[in-house]
Amino acid sequence: MTKIVIVGGGAGGMEIVTKLGRKLGRKGKAEITLIDRCDHHIWKPLLHELATGSLDEGLNALDYRMHASQNGYRFEQGMLAGLNQVDRQVVLAPMLDEFGAEILPERKIGYDYLVIGVGAVTNDFGIPGVQEHCDFLDLTEQAMALRKKIRHRFLRYAKEHNVEQEHFEISIVGAGATGVEMAAEMHHAADTLRGYGYDIREDLLQVNLIEATDRVLPRIDKPRICNAVAKELAKLGVRVKTDTRISEVTPMGMHTADGQFIPSDMVLWSAGVKGHPFLATLGLEVNQADQIMVHPSCQSLSNDRIFAFGDCAACPQEDGSWVPPRGQTARQMALLVGDNIEKLMADPQATLDGYVYKDLGSFVNMSKFHTVGNLMSFVGGGMTVEGKMARLVYTSLYRRHLIALHGVSKGLLLMLLNGLQRIMRPELKLH
Ligand SMILES: Cc1cc2nc3c(=O)[nH]c(=O)nc-3n(C[C@H](O)[C@H](O)[C@H](O)COP(=O)(O)OP(=O)(O)OC[C@H]3O[C@@H](n4cnc5c(N)ncnc54)[C@H](O)[C@@H]3O)c2cc1C
């Protein structure tokens, strides 16, 4: 039987494995295996909400093993560490517990078609001190650790403990959608905690949003969206510093290239993404950002049986641009990979489809304060929507992901539970 191995159960990986599992795995037409370093999936675009406690991980985490048993694939937990292209095997690193004791030894898993969708990591651009002194939002564990850290800082700086602290100063480096959304989420967390009785001064929280280019949302080419977001940030009191390049991060704050020092109690680094460094060791062609170079069919330039999609892939477009690292592209590329593998299974000489990026829209959700975005950007520049309508479209992306993974009835039930949970439980998860 044809063996299809998918590494990475993220935004795109879960969609392809669910589709292939149901279509081929359940019917015994192929053996589908999902490999992920974690044992559960949380949709990455929600990580900033997880970090502040707006999102309940209990309700939104999906157990891979349970999902596999219901959808016609098998799950293997492990970190992709190597690749044997001759014997067609992936190598998984030994799995260790938190004390370094081995749980599982190194494993080798055979494939006929390999699909790599391991996402990306935040780019530190080699700037001194970033790895040591900054927080990141690449992994669920990092979001959970950040939640604890933020809560502890608010507790410590609440007035009743008399800590001499003028401001709780958080700097967020990178004013893309993630940085902007996190800045708004921080204000939402401060407001909500104040409502729960934490004695937090109105002006305690100072969020600095640092951007190297000359405006917020440098990748969104829609002045109306950028202006609406800049206005909302100003209303919240977020201090936006554009044209500011960080040259070093220390435990006390950040030095800039033009000689300023920005004091910070915490620095969240969200200045763009790059591929995982280990991808450069697999024997596949990668670009300078360690992303796997692929043809428009998503096949690796080095090996036709190996596909890559999403944030870890560098996929060219006809106009010379590259597919951007976004949730919608990961999903669309992953589904195209599934179709292409099915075609190859039917006819190894089949002509494969190429991925054409269609910008369906970009949305920025500033927590409870405002949502703004552009719909159907590929049709005459699209249509800008704001407020409740924009919020509805923004949340519908996650709803579509839930339905793809669970089917319509269970997906709708989960949405209902999420809605009920918002009424019955505190707005912020405190534990
Ligand atoms: C806070 C935040 C907000 C965002 N908001 C938006 C948004 O509003 N809209 C949008 O379009 N995009 C958004 N993005 C970007 C979006 O999340 C990514 O583009 C998308 O998740 C990429 O999907 P993917 O499938 O390529 O990788 P991911 O979703 O990152 O999944 C990668 C998977 O691979 C696994 N993995 C990693 N390394 C290994 C390994 N060595 N071995 C095995 N498994 C491994 C990981 O555990 C993970 O499950 C946001 C990102 C962040 C961080």
TrEMBL record:
Carries keyword Hydrolase? Answer: no
GO MF annotation terms? NAD(P)H dehydrogenase (quinone) activity
Q: Which residues form a coiled coil?
A: none
Kindly list the cofactors needed.
FAD
The residues covered by the FAD/NAD(P)-binding domain are 3-332
Q: Which family does it belong to?
A: Belongs to the NADH dehydrogenase family.
- Please state what the protein is called: NADH dehydrogenase
Annotated source species: Ferrimonas sediminum
